[in-house]
Design a protein that fits this description.
Blueprint (H helix, E strand, L loop, with lengths): L2 E5 L4 H12 L3 E6 L8 H5 L7 E4 L5 H11 L3 E4 L6 H6 L1 H22 L4 E7 L22 H20 L3 E6 L2 E2 L8 H13 L6 E3 L5 E2 L2 E2 H11 L7 E4 L5 E2 H10 L9 E3 L17 H7 L7 H20 L3
Parallel strand pairs: 1-2, 1-4, 2-3, 4-5, 5-6, 6-11, 7-10, 8-13
Antiparallel strand pairs: 9-12
Helix pairs in contact: 1-8, 3-5, 5-6, 7-9, 7-11
Length: 326
């Protein structure tokens, strides 16, 4: 039986990846920070909480990672842990650099020391393209990060390349464009919108405050995307891949479609609030996943419309359950 270790298992991607790997017959270990309160909500939502073996691990402590790798002896390590909120990274740039950037290097170094045959996946991000140099973005597009989070991801990305080339480690980076789901955190604009729609629908709120409505993103479904992570580590050679839908939609479109799902006009409820504007924003991200399609045989299954509807329905259920409405 193959064994995998997932850092960031309590997040959206970690939970869906764990579910996917369990279906593939893997023994799944999930790393968590001992000092933090472990939130297993997402694993419980997917009904897999009891099937995942949790192990304490500190991304900033090389010795901690070495001990976990020696004890677990995984075939594959998926590094999904990060300080992943772009807005927060402006307030906490040093912490973001340590966790999101150096944390990935600590995992790579531990693999080099314990067993260089362990396959490694690094969660890179479309935010690395930032002030985009060309549209759409592919694996050859130069990076131009526009936030401390994106800059930390660029460092982790290039260190993954370095460990691959210098030490022969099977290390891949997936440059994932925005991917959403009912498990997305409320800190992210998509979930903020669908949760807001549900609360307004049931009379718990009267308005929804958002920042830049013109920002355009390539939004896919997280459950579709985790398959690509696994596929990268099954190839004969390690490489980096853009994972995206190839379609861009604005925050305005996401809001309009979300409100339409419950028969409401978004313009009656959305308020643009300057406090939600970033110091430096990224206006347009849209990916070209041709390489993933040709090499991995991967393509998205969920449309933008289906994704929005799925998220709105999930939040409507959550609000109904909280109110005891049948």
């Amino acid at each position: 039986m193959k064994k995998s270790l997932i850092t960031g298992i309590t997040g959206q991607d970690g939970a869906y990846l764990a579910q996917f790997l369990l279906k593939k017959g893997y023994r799944v270990y999930g790393a968590f920070r001992r000092s933090s309160t472990v939130n297993l909500e997402r694993l419980a939502y997917l009904g897999i909480k009891e099937q995942v073996e949790l192990v304490p691990l500190d991304l900033l402590d090389l010795g901690s990672i070495i001990r976990v790798l020696e004890n677990v002896q995984p075939d594959e390590v998926y590094n999904l842990a990060a300080q992943s909120f772009v807005a927060v990274s402006f307030d906490q740039p040093v912490a973001t650099g340590r966790i999101t950037g150096l944390g990935a290097v600590n995992v790579l170094e531990a693999i080099r020391i314990v067993n260089p045959k362990i396959k490694f996946y690094q969660a890179s991000s479309s935010e690395m393209f930032g002030k985009v140099q060309n549209v759409p973005q592919n694996e050859q597009t130069p990076f131009y990060p526009r936030s401390p989070y994106a800059a930390a991801k660029v460092y982790a990305h290039w260190m993954t390349v370095n460990y691959r080339e210098a030490y022969g480690i099977f290390a891949c980076s997936g440059i994932l464009f925005n991917h959403e789901s009912p498990l997305r955190g409320l800190e992210f604009v998509t979930r903020k919108i669908t949760d807001g729609v549900a609360r307004i629908k049931y009379g718990l709120a009267k308005e929804l405050r958002l920042g830049n409505l013109e920002a355009r993103r390539d939004w896919g479904c997280a459950e579709d995307y985790v398959e690509a992570l696994w596929l990268m580590l099954q190839q004969p050679q390690p490489d980096d891949y853009v994972i995206a839908t190839g379609e861009a939609h604005s925050v305005r479109e996401f809001a309009a479609r979300s409100f339409a799902c419950v028969g409401l006009n978004w313009e009656d409820y959305v308020v643009v609030d300057p406090q939600f504007m970033r110091p430096a924003d990224v206006e347009l991200l849209v990916g070209d996943a041709s390489k993933a399609r040709h090499v991995l045989g991967w393509k998205p299954k969920t449309t933008f419309e289906q994704l929005v509807e799925m998220m709105v329905e999930a939040d409507l259920r959550r609000v109904r359950d909280s109110l005891g409405v049948r």
